[in-house]
Amino acid sequence: MELQNIAEKFDLQGKIKNIEPYGNGHINTTYLIECDDNGKIYRYVLQKINTNVFPDYKGLMNNIQSVTSFLREKIIANNGNPDRETLNLVPAIDGKCYVQNQDGVYRVYKFIEDTIALQIAENNEVFEGAGFAFGNFVKMLNEFDASGLCEVIKNFHNTADRFQKFINAVDKDIAKRADSVREEIDFVLKRSAMCDSIVTLIENKTIPLRVTHNDTKLNNVLISAESCKPICVIDLDTIMPGSLLYDFGDAIRSGCNTGLEDEPDLTKVGFDISLYESFTKGFMSGVGSCITALERDMLSLGSIMMTFECGMRFLTDYLEGDVYFKIHYPEHNLVRCHTQFKMVADMENLRYKMDDIARKYSKV
Ligand code: ADP
Ligand code: GN1
Ligand code: MG
What are phi and psi of 327, to 5 degrees? Predict the structure, then answer.
């Protein structure tokens, strides 16, 4: 079996017993490997890197290797457990950190046992924990030297650039779907003026450029299966220079939704401000005094922008014929777009309350 051949090229402990699909990501393909070493079970995560999305997979793996080594040292210095609190790459037998064959590029991480990833924030405590984890992540990387990091996806959260790509998709209308989504297109056009707001703040150096995660959705933090406390921030593919507003905002986008990202029944979808408060409380405690007062005052904008951008990306992909995100049925990207736009509209109405909450918990 092909996957077995690939897995055997990594330095795994014991004999491979089973490999099966795992997880819920939209980009890479994830498998769980189970090995048996004289009755002791060792588990690993095998991932096929999506090289359409990440053509510079060498740069990407280099980023992950340097960031995880840095985090390991930090966690040890804080008396934490570096085998559970950061991802650990398993090297290939030839010493590289990935294996490439004619079919693609693969990597392996140690499986972090007794943890779960949630698709939806089940309660406020869990989401406060996720807030702490992502805030602490930004803080831990505050001293990381970003000069060696490559920008794996150029302009990843440059909303103005995303808007331009959206306009191109509408103009080209490759999948001949534009006429059926005029309302959604108008939703975007009405908000075109805000698209360059964060980019401009960064360019002016009004807010700092940092090393950020850039994909802080709730299922990218592993939590303890027993206590629900946060254990490890995962999915490090998009670590690169970015804004704290991206990390805060993307987590709010995914975690403050009362429904799933692809919930077709919009009556179940909405922005939950009490979850916003819990996340903000956790994030502020994790990030401490690393956040600037201006960043704090822009958190509501970051949340609206990241949600708007993601909805616009789903709509762009729908217009382009579903070439980027994995879909499970033809309208999947459009359904995802609707949930994001519903969240945007809700947040626009609650922006001032969101600002009050940020000020209430900030340490600056
Ligand atoms: P994607 O980029 O496709 O979202 P992720 O790296 O987030 O891929 O992995 C997909 C899922 O696999 C996660 O949501 C999580 O449930 C699980 N997972 C990933 N890495 C680990 C790990 N080291 N230990 C345990 N579970 C993991
Ligand atoms: C993708 O890889 P995953 O599923 O965690 C995407 C994010 C989107 C998210 C929407 C590299 O994240 O930017 O916000 O889907 N990742 C990439 O669910 O494009
Ligand atoms: Mg993920």
Answer: -120, 155
Residue 115 Cα: closest atom of ligand 1:
25
Structure tokens at 145: 């030297």
DSSP assignments along 48-97, one per residue: EE-TTT-S-HHHHHHHHHHHHHHHHHHHHHTT--TTTSS--BPPBTTS-S
* CB of 314 closer than 8 Å to CB of 322: no
Interval between CA 220 and ligand 2 midpoint (Å): 10
Q: What is the pLDDT of residue 1?
A: 61
Which range (136-150, 308-322, 323-337) has the least confidence? 136-150
Q: Which residues contact 318 (CB under 8 A, 6 or more apart)?
A: 175, 177, 181, 331, 333, 334, 337
- Cα of 28 to ligand 2 centre, how many Å? 10
Closest ligand (CA of 162): 2
| Non-local CB neighbours of 271 within 8 Å, separated by 6+ positions | 256, 257, 258, 343, 346, 347, 350
Residue pLDDT, tens place only, 35-45: 999 999 999 99
- pLDDT, tens digit, for every residue of 188-237? 999 999 999 999 999 999 999 999 999 999 999 999 999 999 999 999 99
Residues with CB under 6 A from ligand 1: 22-25, 27-28, 30, 45, 87, 109, 111-112, 115, 117, 219-220, 222, 234-235, 237
* Pocket perturbation via mutation, ligand 1, pick of 24, 60, 215, 325 by most ligand atoms within 8 A of CB: 24
pTM of the model: 0.96
Strand partners, 303: none
CA of 110 to the centre of ligand 1 (A): 11
